[in-house]
Write a structure and sequence with these properties.
The complex is a heterodimer of chains A (619) and B (578).
Chain A (H helix, E strand, L loop, with lengths): L2 E6 L6 H12 L8 E7 L2 E7 L12 E2 L5 E9 L2 H7 L13 H9 L9 E9 L4 E6 L8 E4 L5 E4 L11 E4 L4 E4 L4 E4 L17 H23 L9 E3 L4 H21 L6 E6 L4 H13 L2 E6 L2 H15 L4 H19 L4 E3 L4 H5 L11 H14 L4 H10 L4 E3 L5 H8 L18 H6 L10 H4 L17 H11 L3 H4 L3 H13 L2 H5 L1 H4 L8 H13 L3 H5 L5 H11 L3 H4 L7 H14 L2 H7 L3 H13 L2
Parallel strand pairs in A: 13-14, 13-16, 14-15, 16-17
Antiparallel strand pairs in A: 1-3, 1-9, 2-3, 4-5, 5-6, 6-7, 7-11, 8-9, 8-10, 11-12
Helix pairs in contact in A: 4-5, 4-12, 5-6, 7-8, 7-17, 7-20, 8-11, 10-22, 15-24, 15-26, 17-20, 24-26
Chain B lengths: L2 E6 L6 H8 L6 E7 L2 E7 L12 E2 L5 E9 L2 H7 L13 H9 L9 E9 L4 E6 L8 E4 L5 E4 L11 E4 L4 E4 L4 E4 L17 H14 L7 E4 L4 H14 L3 H6 L4 E6 L4 H13 L2 E6 L2 H15 L4 H19 L4 E3 L4 H5 L11 H14 L4 H10 L4 E3 L5 H8 L18 H6 L10 H4 L6 H4 L2 H14 L2 H5 L1 H4 L8 H13 L3 H5 L5 H11 L3 H4 L7 H14 L9 H4 L1 H4 L1 H7 L1
Parallel strand pairs in B: 13-14, 13-16, 14-15, 16-17
Antiparallel strand pairs in B: 1-3, 1-9, 2-3, 4-5, 5-6, 6-7, 7-11, 8-9, 8-10, 11-12
Helix pairs in contact in B: 4-13, 5-7, 8-9, 8-17, 8-20, 9-12, 11-22, 17-20, 22-27, 24-27
The chains are: A alpha+beta (619), B alpha+beta (578).
């Protein structure tokens, strides 16, 4: 990942302004430790902090077209840059950077080229000929981008909020799949895949197509990485984040297979490296080890202590830019692990985010009443990813100059997966279909197994923290309960969450919490843990606009409120404050869900209650 | 390089304090050990044993905790001596806690390497702090109003919390039991007595080769900084020669990587390329523009923590290059600092009136290194998590080099002895040449100039645009201490003051009377210089220097000398510093 910052039309263009821009851009340096660049054109500034993955020698940014009239600063990877370059055969390229195509595509196609890009990106492009500019963000929001407005009429863009929060009067998340054009002066959506309309698709499920598309989605980033590492002086491998759950295990299995095939070709003898983080003896560590042994990767385990996690919290919040409790819980281990990974010389990792959203991997999908509802819910989930798992995966790795690539969120893969008749995705215990069955089945290859069956069909923790939605309704609390046994923050070790809560308990008094609604009228924290995170967040990002970038408001509640209707018992309790009642329903639900879930939930009911209260409380 | 920070005996031991202490962090990992009201924090750059050597480190029963920034080259020997001790990690610094157990406070001189460390003995709540012989690593000490003692690798780790702070003197030990500093480093040369060992080229050569090879101890990829001058070329040549036999070569390949920075077409780039071609290294050139450099100045000052003009000029290209080097996956580089001080490589040594004066001047120079070249080499690289190792400042090598009868070091043009002749001669091997003769005997330019002539001009022009004559006029009121006398200096100073506004901070930068005194001796070497000791007599000094300069036939244009070859001459440095 790189870090970008662009400012257009600021009144003051003195040296002081230049210094200020440099200073602000420096706040993004963790994202791009390798080099920085600044292009200044009258009252427009484009700054860039680079993490060199492709063409380390010459690809410094900003990038230009032939006559330097078009300037572009990009954070991202364009996987199909070679194909695009072929189309642009009349153009002359200055660097080997994959992002250089953007300037040339703009020359050729004007503003309508964004959908031609396959990859993850956010970029700002300045056309010096008419001093117009555009900014765009990838389809799902894998890369972060913020837009802001200064009192002097300037428009700002930055990869992270911290670069513009002090200088803008107002700012917000730049919507994924959108483009801002100064000519039109508005933000419009460029990403228009069939699934976006939430119409119910009817393509029959074809395991082979799904598998092949996913393999391709994994190869793209790998191939790009291999091209790179050949150029690096040392034999720097990339790796896979492996929690031992289905999604990350599949990514690792496919990547390992691909490496094996391409090994001879690129005479790069290394094994695939996999990484896992956890408190000593945690479930993730064990599960990941098992998968790593099976695939034969070079596996690295990182242990952290609760105290180390607590010590890192301030930095985590500064980097992730959220006060969402569950995101912070899940980000911390990832943040710590990223540092260790980077210290081994690894610059890029593949990660398994997005699968739960696409395939309805969350427990509450068990209750989806029909395929239409199921499909709509997955669509909504994908649309909100940029606020939760994408944000976490991107920022907790970028904090240490590590890049996370997420093959499940490949544009083509999403199209294929979201065009499958959702009937197939429905969870049907009667047909032996557990959640994400279409994915599991696609990789169930008896001849050349990707994973042993028991792992392939294991209902296990996911790396992703789908719990971002937690506080909004009953199901989700329940769902968390179920998943808490298994999801990331817990997979790293059961005492992690307990440790966090104990710590917050010590820092936040009852009186503080009592007055919380006066101090924080928006997204009021209702637990000490939430309060504690919030105070740290407010210290770094005191502006109103900053707290509005974090979800938790009614709009998100609305979007999943749909799912609340799936069960009459839940529907009766849409009120988030109906905490106690929710708890009761939670246990009621326990009796109805499948045996596997039962086992997980069979913890003492007091604990369940406590868990639910807490989830509700984060509302 | 790692970063250490220790707070000992603070009244507040809350979480807030913990976080405050952790604020200053390094790239690979960080560790914090808290014992009562004492905190030992560590930010690690993992060079040896990346997997298990996280700090703080402990003795067997964890009663002694130590946080270290540095490398102990003789750790394997020391481990052998500590047979009845059990080591938890493979870290080279692990020996420190055990040596303390065995020898109490008097073990520091047994360490061969570069280091600064804080050791906490929890049994009696005492602590010691030590800094390596010459100050290759950086270290600061400060005192809080609450009675706490703060130790930090960089100024920025403690300046906000201490009432007073200063550079931790190199070669010293601070012990809480005795409550004061004590010098542990007592080599023969320190007393500045004139040595009489006859010059033996082979002894010198072997000593330096040893110094280089022991620095090849690493578990990560590394390279050499190669400016094409004598010192860096020798380092590169020796490294290339011995690399094949090392453990590092087995892991990372026997190809040596060398790095050079400069404006496009600069003299350094050309010279370095020539040497690299001769040695067959994989050579990397980094080009920067004057604008790149100017944009980095604030960052450089923040990292290097000085407002010394010549240090900033020389640090900037090194700072930019370090980032590029690190981005290639290299974590450690070997560099040529220290040779000019040890051998009297500066041009003004031509005028040394006697061997006694010559020798004393080299001693003074070495003692001041931690404020100039060591500071630059260490902090400009550490800013990007790159470690610089300086074989010329090897303890044993300094002993050997400083025990040579200084008569041999004297510059005698009539005998064909140019500056650093003893070093050149030591590596003049006809059968297995280290370097081609013309490089071995070449008089080269120094860092800030070698990167390209327009660099200094660009800096001055930039400063002139931002500092008005009126500002200069009032400079002595605004900055009564070390008043900047040029617009460039004024410009740097304002940036420095913004980051480090405390009075203590400006006192850590040399320029005061003490440094001026130490080199004032050398000013006496020429009557013409002596007449211009007045700090305002800068222009006059310039004239004399340029006169001298033409005499020694350097190619610099006389009018430029005073500003464009600052560190090399040192005399203009004196003028600035008075």
């Amino acid at each position: 990942m790189c870090g970008i910052l662009a400012v257009f039309g600021c009144v003051d263009n003195s040296q002081a302004k230049r210094s200020r821009i440099i200073e602000l851009s420096r706040r993004l340096r963790h994202r791009g430790p390798d080099w920085s660049g600044l292009h200044c054109h009258q009252d427009c500034y484009l700054a860039h902090q680079r993490l060199a993955i492709v063409d380390p020698a010459s690809g410094d940014q900003p990038l230009y077209n032939e006559d330097k009239s078009v300037v572009v600063t990009v954070n991202g990877e364009i996987y199909n840059h070679n194909q695009l370059k072929e189309k642009l055969n009349s153009h002359q390229f200055r660097t080997g950077s994959d992002c250089e195509v953007i300037a040339h595509l703009y020359e050729e196609y004007g503003e309508d080229f964004v959908d031609m890009l396959d990859g993850m990106f956010s970029f700002v492009l300045l056309d010096t000929r008419d001093k117009s500019f555009i900014a765009a963000r990838d389809a799902i929001g894998i890369t972060p981008l913020y837009i802001g407005w200064g009192l002097d009429g300037s428009v700002w863009f930055a990869s992270e909020m911290k670069a513009l929060s002090d200088d803008c009067e107002r700012f917000m998340s730049f919507l994924p799949g959108h483009i801002y054009s100064s000519k039109q002066g508005e933000i419009r959506r460029w990403y228009n895949p069939p699934w976006y309309l939430e119409k119910i698709p009817s393509t029959p499920y074809d395991p082979k197509v799904l598998r092949e598309t996913f393999e391709k989605a994994c190869f793209k980033p790998c191939a790009l990485a291999l091209a790179v590492f050949k150029r690096l002086m040392t034999d720097v491998p990339f790796g896979v984040l492996l929690s031992g759950g289905l999604d990350s295990s599949l990514v690792a299995a496919v990547a390992a297979r691909y490496l094996a095939y391409s090994e001879a070709a690129c005479q790069w003898g290394s094994q695939l490296h996999t990484f896992c983080v956890g408190l000593k003896g945690s479930p993730d560590l064990k599960a990941a080890r098992e998968v790593a042994d099976y695939i034969g990767t070079r596996h690295h385990e990182f242990h952290f202590t609760v105290q180390e996690g607590i010590d890192a919290l301030e930095e985590v919040i500064y980097h992730i830019e959220t006060y969402d409790v569950t995101t912070i819980r899940a980000s911390t281990p990832m943040f710590l692990m990223s540092r260790k990974i980077k210290s081994l010389g690894v610059k890029m990792v593949l990660s398994g985010e997005g699968s739960d959203e696409i395939f309805g991997g969350y427990l509450y999908f068990h209750k989806a009443p029909n395929k239409e509802e199921f499909h709509e819910e997955t669509s909504r989930k994908i649309k909100a990813l940029h606020l939760y798992d994408c944000l976490r995966a991107n920022k907790s790795t970028s904090a240490w100059g590590l890049e996370a690539r997420v093959p499940f969120l490949d544009k083509e893969f999403i199209n294929v997966a979201m065009s499958i008749d959702p009937e197939w995705k429905m969870i049907r215990p009667d047909l032996g279909r557990i959640e994400k069955w279409v994915l599991r089945n696609a990789f169930d290859d008896d001849q050349k197994p990707y994973l042993p069956k028991h792992i392939l069909y294991r209902q296990k923790e996911q790396f992703s923290d789908g719990v971002g939605y937690s506080w909004i309704d009953a199901i989700i609390y329940l769902h968390i309960l179920y998943r808490q046994k298994e999801q990331f923050s817990d997979g790293v070790g059961y005492s992690w969450i307990d440790g966090l809560k104990d710590h917050a308990e010590k820092q936040v008094t009852d009186t503080m919490l009592m007055n919380a609604s006066f101090i924080y009228p928006e997204n009021t924290p209702t637990t000490k843990e939430g309060y504690y995170y919030r105070t740290i967040f407010e210290k770094f990002f005191p502006k109103n606009a900053a707290r509005s970038t974090v979800p938790g408001g009614p709009s998100v509640a609305c979007s999943t409120a749909k799912a609340v209707e799936w069960d009459a018992a839940w529907a009766k309790n849409p009120d988030p404050s109906g905490r106690a009642a929710l708890g009761v329903h939670a246990s009621a639900y326990e009796e109805t869900i499948d045996a596997n879930a039962m086992d997980l939930i069979k913890s003492p009911s007091r604990k369940i209650q406590k868990g639910i209260e807490e989830k509700t409380a984060t509302a | 390089m790692c970063g250490i920070l220790a707070v000992l005996g603070c009244s507040d031991d809350s979480q807030a304090k913990r976080v405050r202490v952790l604020k200053h962090r390094g790239p690979d990992w960080s560790g914090l050990h808290q014992h009562g009201d004492c905190y030992l924090a560590h930010q690690r750059l993992a060079i040896i044993d990346p997997a298990s050597g996280d700090q703080p480190l402990f003795n067997e029963d964890k009663t002694v905790a130590v946080t270290v920034n540095g490398e102990i080259y003789n750790h394997e020997e020391l481990r052998k001596k500590l047979v009845n001790h059990k080591f938890r990690t493979g870290s080279d610094c692990d020996v420190i806690a055990h040596l303390y157990e065995e020898h109490g406070e008097d073990f520091v001189d047994m360490l061969d390497g570069i280091f600064s460390f804080v050791l906490l003995d929890t049994r009696d709540n005492s602590f010691i702090v030590a800094h390596d012989a010459v100050g290759v690593t950086s270290l600061y000490i400060g005192w809080g109003l609450d009675g706490s003692v703060w130790i930090s690798s960089e100024l920025k780790g403690l300046n906000d919390d201490c009432e007073h702070f200063e550079c931790f003197p190199p070669g010293h030990l601070y012990s809480s039991k005795s409550g004061g500093f004590r010098r542990w480093y007592n080599p023969p040369w320190f007393s500045e007595a004139i040595p009489s060992v006859p010059y033996d080229p082979l002894v010198l050569r072997r000593a330096f080769e040893n110094a280089v090879t022991k620095r090849l101890m690493t578990d990560v990829p590394f390279g050499v900084l190669l400016s094409g001058g004598l010192d860096s070329s020798l380092v590169a040549s020796i490294t290339a020669r011995y690399l094949a036999d090392t453990k590092a070569a087995k892991q990372w390949g026997a190809q040596l990587h060398s790095f050079c920075v400069g404006l496009e077409g600069s003299p350094d780039l050309k010279a370095a390329k020539e040497v690299a071609d001769y040695l067959g290294t994989v050579h990397h050139e980094f080009h920067f523009t004057v604008q790149d450099g100017i944009d980095a100045i604030e960052d450089v000052i923040y990292h290097v923590e000085t407002y010394d003009v010549t240090t900033i000029r020389a640090s900037t290209p090194m700072f930019l290059m370090s980032r590029k080097i690190k981005s290639l996956g290299v974590k450690m580089v070997i560099s040529g600092e220290g040779s000019d001080e040890i051998f009297g490589g500066y041009l003004y040594f031509h005028k040394a009136p006697s061997k006694d004066e010559f020798h004393r001047e080299t001693c003074h120079k070495i003692k001041a290194l931690h404020q100039y070249d060591c500071l630059r080499a260490n902090k400009a690289t550490s800013a990007w998590g790159l470690e610089a190792r300086v074989p010329f400042l090897d303890k044993e090598f300094i002993n050997v080099a400083m025990s040579i009868d200084p008569e041999a070091k004297m510059i005698k043009k009539d005998e064909g002895r140019i500056e650093k002749w003893v070093l050149r001669r030591a590596f003049d091997d006809e059968k297995h040449p280290y370097l081609p003769k013309h490089i071995l005997y070449r008089q080269k330019e120094q860092f800030s100039d070698g990167v390209g002539y327009s660099w200094i001009d660009g800096l001055k022009a930039h400063a002139a645009r931002h500092v008005t004559d009126k500002m200069m006029f009032n400079a002595s009121y605004i900055f009564p201490h070390n008043t900047p006398t040029t617009k460039e200096a004024y410009y740097y100073r304002t940036i420095f003051e913004r980051f480090f506004p405390q009075n203590s901070a400006r006192l850590t930068v040399p320029g005061g009377a003490s440094v001026a005194c130490s080199t004032a001796k050398a000013v006496e070497w020429d009557a013409a210089w002596k007449n211009n000791l007045d700090p305002s007599g800068r222009a006059a000094l310039g004239v004399h220097l340029s006169a001298y300069d033409t005499e020694t036939s350097l190619n610099n244009k006389p009018s430029k000398v005073i500003d464009s070859i600052p560190r090399m001459m040192e005399i203009p440095g004196v003028a600035v510093q008075i």
